[in-house]
Amino acid sequence: MLEPKNNDELPLIPPKRYFTIGEVGELCAVKPHVLRYWEAEFPQLKPVKRRGNRRYYQRQDVVLIRQIKSLLYEQGYTIGGARQKMSDDPNEVARPSINSSEIKSLVRDLEDVIRRI
User: Where is the HTH merR-type domain (predicted)?
Assistant: First the structure.
């Protein structure tokens, strides 16, 4: 989802397990209050919260934030449009596409197996 030109502009993500909200803000060029807002708007963005409700983001959260930023700032999506795009994105959740004829064939095969038992 991120275009190659955007990857060059943002710093590399260091090999750490957790990042604070300030570190993520620097890595993604987004202010912390924007990250907190996006957390409320995008259900996929769920940083770990510990002591005193402090947020700790993982690497996949940083990548997700960069995707959200690209959708909103570079591609011109609205918050609702970006939310919809991310929920429809086949890369987000790998959903196998099976048509009805394949399902019928699988049911017949399973019925044959049951009859043999």
Answer: 18-88
List domains and CATH numbers for the chain: 4-116 (1.10.1660.10)
Determine the Cα–Cα distance for residues 6 and 100; give it in Å rounded to an integer.
41
| CA–CA dist 39, 42 (Å, integer) | 6
Q: Please give the biggest Cα pair distance in the chain.
A: 64
For the record, the structure tokens of 61 come out as 């959260």
- Whether the model clears a pTM of 0.90, i.e. scores above it, the answer is no
Cα 70 from Cα 2, distance rounded (Å): 6
User: How, if at all, do strands 54-57 and 48-50 pair?
Assistant: antiparallel
Is the torsion defined by CA of 76, 47, 9, 33 positive or negative? Answer: positive
- Tokens 């959200």 belong to which residue? 68
